[in-house]
Amino acid sequence: MSLSRREFVQLAGTGVLSQSILLKAQQVTSATTAQARVALVHGDSRRKNVCDALVKIDDQIQARLKHKKTVVIKPNGVNSSNQLASTHVDALAGILDYLEPRFHGPIVIAESSADDTLDVFENFKYNELAKERRAQNVSLVDLNREGKYETIPLVDFDLHITPARLAARLLDPDAFVISSAMLKTHNTVVATMSIKNMVLGAPLRSSPGETQWNDKRKYHVGVRQTHYNMLLTAQKLRPHWGAAVIDGYEGMEGEGPTDGKAVPSRLAIASTDYIAADRVGLEVMGINPDWVGYLRYCAETGLGQYDLSKIDVVGATIASVGKKYQLHPDIERELKWMGPMKELPPMLGSLCIEHRVDNA
């Protein structure tokens, strides 16, 4: 059942949560995260925008990169036929342009697509890019075919534990992991950028010819459970994150993450703080940050900076590049994660008695 107009307005205006809960969340975030820097670049070249954004945070990247043996670039290859839905080869070229004078170890472009990853590599010219960049020791890896993983416990629709397999390369302590994402609206979690690219790209699925299985489906188990499972996965991946790159040269609005319309935002975002990068991404898309559950959960558990007042935006200003993106038609249902869990049974035993006393 969809929300009434009144309920929707209340959700949008108050976020459902009480002021005390919001204050507590802000206190946790402030106590566990520091000031973040996010580069925001606007220009007429996708490739140059991406490279320039990384250059603006070069000192922060270098501090982490110098201790790593390899770089893993994780593109968004959710769809093998729609270029607008997937990371553009020019964005990858911009990342490689930045790395060329700074890193001389192996570079792996690695993806676990919901389609056939090899089709993503071929259709979007990643194969050609790897050949052009032989001098940089660039290779392509289908994480599904590689089949190496670590497991993580998630919850299913009934809140029972279910294991999921995460790609081992994205958990390698010797790897500097770069999320190469885009600005897109989403049909379940409002918006998808750096964090979503990582946490739903990490779970594996069967390769062609195998008995079919898909651990990505274990995240799509309810409007609330999805956000929580994304938090669990972000916590697992977080120690290995290097830098977030969000290509907004052409964003996607409406029926994202695969069937939306192009928005010519002509920008790129970069940060070593994935949460902060996504927070700035929401701002340039004109999306209420209170609506995106998995990002709020990540912030409230100290995985990054979500408070805009504690994010130094360098380069272009948010006001100068921001556009109001049209959200997915299912936005009312997406926002139900913020409301009460009405489908659960009433409280039992002493909890029920205490509730009655408190409300007598």
From the N-terminal CA to the C-terminal CA, the straight-line distance is 31 Å
Query: What percent of residues are in strands?
Result: 15-25%
Name the structural class: alpha/beta
- Number of structural domains: 1
> What does the radius of gyration come to?
20 Å
**Backbone shape:** globular
Figure out the total of helices.
15
Report on the biggest sheet: 10 strands, mixed
Could you characterize the architecture of this molecule?
The chain has one domain (5-358). Helices cover 36% and strands 21% of the residues. It is built from 15 helices and twelve strands. Helix 3 runs parallel beside helix 5 (89-99) and helix 10 (225-237) packs across helix 12 (293-300). Residues 1-32 and 356-360 have low confidence and may be disordered.
Topology record:
Elements lengths: L4 H10 L4 H14 L3 E7 L3 H10 L2 H8 L4 E6 L13 H11 L7 E5 L5 H7 L2 H7 L5 E5 H4 L2 E7 L5 E7 L7 E11 L5 E2 L1 H6 L25 H13 L3 E13 L7 E3 L3 E5 L2 H12 L7 H8 L10 E5 L2 H4 L9 H4 L14 H10 L2
Parallel strand pairs: 1-12, 2-3, 2-7, 3-4, 7-9
Antiparallel strand pairs: 1-11, 5-6, 7-8, 9-10, 9-11
Helix pairs in contact: 3-5, 10-12
